[in-house]
Amino acid sequence: MSIQKPKGTQDLLPGDVEKWQYLENKARDLCRRFNYKEIRTPIFEHTELFARGVGETTDIVEKEMYTFQDKGDRSITLRPEGTAGVVRAYVENKLYGEPDVSKLYYVGPMFRYEQPQAGRYRQFHQFGIEAFGSTEPSIDAEVIALGYTFYKEIGLQNVTVEINSVGTPSVRTAYRTELQAFFAPVKDKLCKDCQFRYDRNPMRILDCKVDQKYGEGAPSILDHLDDECNTHFGAVQDHLTAMEIPFTINPRLVRGLDYYTHTAFEYKSAGIGSIDTIGAGGRYNGLVEQIGGGDQPGVGLGLGLERILLVLANQGVEVPKPEPIDVYLIALGEPAEKEVIKLLYQLRQQGIAAEKDYLGRKMKAQMKSADRYNAKYVAILGDDELARGEITLKKMETGDQLTVTLADLAANAAKTLFE
């Protein structure tokens, strides 16, 4: 019996992995323009980090984490999301001592034990950004705008932005009491998860897909915001409007993480079955302090790359194909083969994408191989050309041929091939 990949994971093969590279390169270029710097944190962390940072009442911590004891009997968890690890690194490395706002981004795998379905894996990948040190509503709007711009530039259609304010802990305390009173008559009818949430975090009931009907007519947190929260939320809307970022207000949007304060948002796009959220984020002013740092505000987002690729495919958006091979070298005869091996290395040293046959095939088969690689040129070297110190170049697009010296090609291939 052959060994297969674990459930909820996937192999990214040549032909597909280039699509991932395209998204990652787009993300990195966008972060360069918005002045976010890359950070790379461990794939596993101490379990306490996620229990304290993500929230003990969240589905992630209660049901979805990959947790194990290491050989030192320490509880270790594969990261289920990116923010907590970045906050830990921000605190541990004292990035809060820098004079400017810390603007960071990451791209990498996350792990959650969920039931796999379209767009949902147990190992999945996120592009995320985090900004620390500012309470300004303008940076909330900047984070939302960066995510929206990413979707727009890769060609995703019909992306909508939903925003809400989840207030502050003091605002939510009063709101929580009112929510519990609202749901009390139907508590026994709620799903098991929401019956548990009723006492610990009743706002999460509003986000439940199973109990949507019981939440109709529930009090809105927007009616409970204090002056500070209202001012902040209004300013975020003003900034988004000024940047012409379209959005709608969804008072039921609460997100599944306990650390959010003030702004919460999601990006939606249909086309992944019952899943329509392709990215989300929000402000988390108390998280740095929870993880052991000072009272530093933060705001960020996370975008799921698997879901983005699935929506792109469903919308028929073509991801740009990788650059073709510049030149495919064909040797006719053993002396020519030795020269081609040397020439191949010389070309690659000049930045030329070059390839040759390694299976001892005849010229016709090698030409087919060059065609499969979509090579721009084929360079053919036989014994006669070798004796004259020359090599024949064939431009595959037109069929035109020219002869150049081996010395010229080896010394200045870029000029020879592309000028």
TrEMBL record:
GO molecular function annotations of the record: histidine-tRNA ligase activity
UniProt entry keywords in alphabetical sequence: Aminoacyl-tRNA synthetase, ATP-binding, Cytoplasm, Ligase, Nucleotide-binding, Protein biosynthesis
A Pfam family per the record: HGTP_anticodon
EC numbers on record: 6.1.1.21
Major subcellular site: cytoplasm
Reactions performed catalytically: tRNA(His) + L-histidine + ATP = L-histidyl-tRNA(His) + AMP + diphosphate + H(+)
SUPFAM superfamilies xrefs: Class II aaRS ABD-related, Class II aaRS and biotin synthetases
Subcellular location: Cytoplasm
Start and end residues of each Aminoacyl-transfer RNA synthetases class-II family profile domain: 8-320
Assembly with partners or alone: Homodimer.
Protein family: Belongs to the class-II aminoacyl-tRNA synthetase family.
Name assigned to this protein: Histidine--tRNA ligase
